[in-house]
Amino acid sequence: MMPRIIVGLLAALAAFGAEPLKPKVAPPDPAFNRLYPNERIVEFLKGYAAAYPEFVRLASIGKASGGGEMWLVTIHNPTTGAEPGKPAIYIDAATHANEIQGTEVCLYLINYVLKNYGKLERVTELLDRAVLYVVPMSNPDSRVKWFTEPSTPNFPRTPPIKIDDDRDGLVDEDGYEDLNGDGEITMMRKKVPLGQGRFRLDPKDPRLLVPVQGEELGDYIQLGLEGIDNDGDGQVNEDPIGYIDANRTWAWGWQPRYVQGGSSDYPLQYPETRTIAEWFLEHPNVAAAQSFHNTGRIILRGPGARGMRQYPPGDVRAYDLIAKEGEKLLPGYKYGIIWKDLYSAYGGSVDHFYGVHGAIALTNELNGPQQDFDKDGRVTPQETIKFSDLLTHGRMFVNWKPYKHPRYGDIEIGGYRHDTGRPPEGFLLEEECHRNAAFVLFHAHHLPRLSLQEPVVTRVRDNVWKLQAAVLNDRAIPSMSDIARQLKLHRPDIATVEGAKVLASGLVRDPWMNRIDYQQHRPERLMVYGVPGLSTQTLFFLVEGSGEVTLSYDSLKAGKLSRKVRLR
Amino acid sequence: MRYGIVLAAAGLLGAQTGYLDYIAVERRLEELARQHPQRMKLEVIGASAAGKKLYAAQVGGPGPAVFVGANIVGWHNAGTQAALNLLERLLAGKDDKLLATRAFYIAPALNPDAHDAMFLAPRWRRSHNGAKSDKDRDGLEGEDGPNDLNNDGRITQIRIPDPAGDMLSDPDNPRLMIRADALKGQKGAYKVYTEGIDDDRDGQYSEDPPGGYRPDKNFAHGFADNDPESGPWPSSTPEAKAVMDYLLTRRNVALAVVYGPANNLLELPRGAGGAPTDVGQMRVRVPRQMAQMAGLDPEQEYTIDELWEMFKDQPMARQMNMTKEMLAQFLGGGPALRPDEEDLKYYGKLAEDYKKLLEKAGLDTRRAGRQSPAGGPQNWLYYQYGVMAIELDVWGVPRRKTEAPKPEQALTLERLEKMTAEEFLALGEEKITAFLKEIKAPPMVQPAMLLEGVKSGKMTPARMAAMVKQMGGGATPARAPVTGEQADLMAYIDQEAPGGFVAWTAVTLPDGRKAEVGGVDPFVEVAPPERLLGPALAAHTDMVLDLAGRLAQLSVASVEAQPLGRGVWKVKAVAANTGGLPTHSKQGQRTRNYVPVRLALELPKGGALVSGVPWVTSERLAGGAEALEGEWLVRAEKGERIGVTVASSNAGSDRKEIVLGGGK
Lengths: 568, 664
Known about the structure:
Chain A is an alpha+beta fold. Chain A is 24% helix and 28% strand.
């Protein structure tokens, strides 16, 4: 009878038995205070796959609209079991290509788990029992454009799909132009005779325009983003590449374009999302998901739009536990519901992953304004430009310069660069990456974890036995979500006993009062509609047999368990 | 032999002849393409789940097009025959004038994997494509399909005596089973299922047959997200995706005909649910983030009109090409769920003409027409692709002839609109009372009042109908429900299709219980013998040709140039739609997924507009009084030519030219 302290030590050592990963070649060592263009990201991903070939698999799951590869990274410990038998979390980023830093968060996460496996218990446990699927760039073609072509903080958001936005029979004929050749698409403004404008120069800072108030007359007009009227229709920049909002083309709750701007002609029409949706059909073990976007410092779940199905309360409990903890890990972030706290969005990824696959899916809107210097709850243009001046020494803002515009005449061009506002400045990026990666690890920590407790065997008579065994889920995500049961999304968990004849089976509703919900038909295949998070389901079998039997529990999302039981 | 056991009782219904199995359809299409290389273009538009090719044939054009798609439900082989009948007619050389300006896209068999279930033994109504799926979510795929227990080569029904059963023999038609009605003192005695046993012993019968997903339920409008057979998401079946991709690259389609089990002209489409018709009056709350940015109160409700006033001039709204409808949807408004009132008027007109055609062909028009199902192709075509979409079932069991005198028609809103005062007075109180009840008129409105009003001349029936409509009553007049369909079916079987009913015969289930197998042949209601099918095919081909002739047709009605002096001219052009149908349906207009009708000037070299842009557009030209007018100030010399074109993707185009200052 060993002293308890030694038992405990041995148990801890057993869990800690995993060794840190020995890389085959020097693994990548990216810096996390900068944004990397696509080819560097792909180099890094290939580098991790080369350094840790057992734990990491890199593959393209298809080509995006412009031919770019959609790279998927799979990470898990192959020696602890095959991939399909493990619960999994799926992470993607930059569906809106301009929402750029989600890719860096994915890179940080991949780097972190591989370099800390075997050193940090929570990381080791996760990679041993679960799978991480990461698609760091789900709109690769436009992401390339954001880096290599003149762009803005908001453009390109769309994949490069040809859509006649202004419905004039010409496609993508009038987009932005970098008129002054400075590599950025900034703003145009023009001084006009007094009384013809709605703005005037901020007396404290002529780089800023302020709207006229009271009895003031204005002498400036804002002309929008840099560009010309390419097609002579009287409008500027009304039909750039796209416009498709890939995050409105997912299937659950999808609506056509007249209901949801940026939508497609039918759900999953384009490869940026269809490729992933088809991949999901082959990977029913995914029980959790995260899609990184920016900005706003919000942790969001669905429903995406008013009038969509309400999320059932059991699942909301899992969401609440994970997202509310996220508010603590991510200072300033608030947990919200998309339709209620943001705006109605039909056809988003989180609704799809939840409503089609039953996965507990969240989307983080990364980053938010950093410059509320006077802490009054508002960030003014003056505070923003002070941030640029004194913390980035003018890096963020391109000062106004005169330009002769073919239509507007003498104007000025200037404004914030494309890599400002939405992604944080480099000196703030690493913290954002770490905290969001930590949140993903917390989310993944709560993938369902099932264990078969010690069965209780009672003889009824002769060779007929009662067998009761509790299945414990000691994490917050259920092994089958409420929505999956409600909408018949996939099969339930199935419990079986091999080695004896099953006469009856069911679930124990009340162990003290011996109340059992029997399954009416086919008792040898007991269907269990999930073990809820942080909870137990107790299985009941009435069997005829002797000796040793095998009790098995097979969950699509939580893996397979089995236990030998002596009928005695 | 390719099909294995062919139904021994093939001659029973005579339904084998006159219908082509899938290979025969393919061969026929290839043969026609070979024989008519100039007229017909055969395309492979995709592949079914099991890898069979999906076909579409193009005949005629260029110009506005009619799309005809058939048998996506899998067991509506009469639809395939109707589509082939149309194709053969178009290739016969009689309609070349029509084909010069109209195109036809015909896809005769859109569910190849299910198509042959009518020909293979045992015959059953299969809709699933050739993928694998677990329809009852028990972890097994295709483990419990129907079984031919009485070896008659077809799947009918099984009735199992059960005191807890809900079915009994219909006292009026003892061969048929009906649900027990407690109010009539009936007591259930059987459980009735599709012919088969509980192969997987889960308590359900034939709930998971071999096969994958149903393409006919795989479209987005009304898609059922809780039905494994519909597929995980709209467009997941290759069959549905192929049809949509094909049509989305052919925006010259102006009208779509679906040959399927519903009939939108015998029974006008009713849609599902409701939507606010005046988007502007919708009241919404602004989500917190947006409210804060805009300085609004997130707790307060605003109308869309109010919010549109605030947002419409914002740069963001302009750059997003935002409309009031988009703003409404952004804030939580939903999609249209009912056919537009204007569109229904056209459906109604087409229904009248369709019924005349059927009557001339000796076909029944009193029979019921099913509604197009949610998640089906017709609803996608109408609500989302945005064209007039008409589903037709080609043939249905006719109403039986009754000895009793034809009951007088009940009063409906349609009749009220057109009737004279004398006709109204002749109706009598009973009919008027029934009508008032149906439109849920308030109790203070009494028949005597109305009769008095009409008699004294203070009121006319037409004005009464208008008032009813204004009050919102009788919006989409549903036909009086058709009763006695079971009796019609048995009468039809007895007269025209003996053997269409299988007498109940005893079988023993695996667990020893005794049951009986029998019931209606799965195809007797949908696949009539050739002699009855023929007239229906001809009538429907005539209907589609007639529809094609009515499509919208744009023309430049007039061009004038008025000299204002000093080389400045006022040029005025008018374009009109000379076809019978509008350029776009109202629902199509709502979708905005097309290029609007454009009336444009071609300026001469050296000519220029004084201001503005050289075109005007219209979202929809209904025809008749509606026209598109453009007026421009042009700087040009006398004697120069000005061209005016009007064009749209689906209503053709036209061009006229004038010489400034007259002359040719």
